[in-house]
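ok new one. same drill as before - structure tokens go in, u give me an amino acid for every spot. 417 of them this time. try not to just spam alanines like last time pls lmao
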């Protein structure tokens, strides 16, 4: 079997992979590009939250992968298994070996359901739900819709995870549903977070504390879900106290929304591309691999310490594409990525707090006159209509959407802190 060769080989056909391929194609009509991606369906994952909240459908978040990839880009419908960066090759599960001039690695995150004892057996029944998979997000809405009273738990594992705000977003949507039905006072809602605060950036954490208080939600920090017994309706948490001592706490529930622990895919962790923590080891501003100059990475599987969101990918794509083209043309790569990420926090069924930030926890809004801490209806319209349109019609098609995001826009609001 003759070995296939491509100028640019992309591992992963999610938000990052498709956007890079199509963006690169817009910059260069002739360059040879191939994508390795086994899935036939492509999901707009930011929509999963509002499917769980009953405001969106799974169909609205789903497209055929084949319809998204530019017809001149070769789609290798297979799994990447191993990397041989010294030989510039990738081996596929089918046994084929593909060689490349430049490699882009963006396979996304792995959901580690198995790290919570008993979860796999009960997920999707016994009122145990999760928005983190297209197979389970519709059941979240079933649970919320059919609940009339009792204890509703919402969990968040240790970071990093996809969209750090998602575990609490669904909690606010559930609470607002209960409030609209006049039954909020019949619920005990608890947020059980393995981390120490509502959000990693204090500016937004303070604002979210007010949202929590408004719904009467109880917060339990440093509580990590380790086991679940669906039929018995109990969840076991490992609680860490201020001195670092750990103890197990068992909570009863009537409904529980679980966010699974997440990590880089195993084939990345076990590869020469990974750093000690298992992530694709790239420079946090150029997205170039720290050891192999012709390899780049972006999206959720990389070592960059930004929020793992589609908004981060949108900013990373043109920087990575340009840097590869610079190398091809004998120029130096540029340090352009500032760690931008965005998390539209759904605080009710009609309001969203648009948290935008960069490396070092800098608050970097795109809209100068709007207080980033305010939950606004306009961002709910963005969440339901504007952002999905931007994803499908602009970002995935390879158009560049550069809205400036500046720390100076937030200065007047951060001074008030």
């Amino acid at each position: 079997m003759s070995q296939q060769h491509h100028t640019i080989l992309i591992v992963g056909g999610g938000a990052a992979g498709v956007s890079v391929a199509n963006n690169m194609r817009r910059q260069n009509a002739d360059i040879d590009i191939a994508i390795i991606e086994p899935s036939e369906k492509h999901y707009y994952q930011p929509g999963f939250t509002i499917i769980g909240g009953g405001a969106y459908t799974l169909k609205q978040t789903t497209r055929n992968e084949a319809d998204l990839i530019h017809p001149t880009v070769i789609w290798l419908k297979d799994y990447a298994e191993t990397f041989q960066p010294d030989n510039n090759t990738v081996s596929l599960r089918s046994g084929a070996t593909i060689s490349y001039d430049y490699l882009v690695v963006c396979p996304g995150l792995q959901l580690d359901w198995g790290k919570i004892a008993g979860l796999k057996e009960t997920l999707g029944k016994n009122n145990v739900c999760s928005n983190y998979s297209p197979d389970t997000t519709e059941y979240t809405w079933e649970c919320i819709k059919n609940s009339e009273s009792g204890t509703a738990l919402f969990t968040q594992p240790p970071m990093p995870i996809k969209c750090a705000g998602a575990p609490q977003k669904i909690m606010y949507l559930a609470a607002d549903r209960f409030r609209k039905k006049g039954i909020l006072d019949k619920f005990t809602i608890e947020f059980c977070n393995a981390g120490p605060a509502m959000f990693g950036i204090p500016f937004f954490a303070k604002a979210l504390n007010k949202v929590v208080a408004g719904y009467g939600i109880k917060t339990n920090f440093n509580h990590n879900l380790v086991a679940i017994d669906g039929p018995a309706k109990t969840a076991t948490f490992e609680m860490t106290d201020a001195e670092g001592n750990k103890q197990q706490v068992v909570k009863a529930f009537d409904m529980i929304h679980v966010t699974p622990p997440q990590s880089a895919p195993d084939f990345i962790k076990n590869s020469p591309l990974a750093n000690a923590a298992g992530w694709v080891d790239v420079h946090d501003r150029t997205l170039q691999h720290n050891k192999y100059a012709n390899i780049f990475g972006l999206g959720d599987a990389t070592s960059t310490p930004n929020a793992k969101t589609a908004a981060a990918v949108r900013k990373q794509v043109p920087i990575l594409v340009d840097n590869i083209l610079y190398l091809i043309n004998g120029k130096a790569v540029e340090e352009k990525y500032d760690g931008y990420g965005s998390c539209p926090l759904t605080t009710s069924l009609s309001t969203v707090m648009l948290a935008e930030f960069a490396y070092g926890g800098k608050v970097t809004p795109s809209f100068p006159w709007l207080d980033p801490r305010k939950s606004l209806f306009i961002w709910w319209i963005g969440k339901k209509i504007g952002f999905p349109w931007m994803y499908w019609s602009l970002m995935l098609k390879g158009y560049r959407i550069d809205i400036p995001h500046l720390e100076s826009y937030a200065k007047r609001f951060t001074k008030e802190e």
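The chain has a mean pLDDT of 96. and btw The first helix runs from residue 15 to 27.
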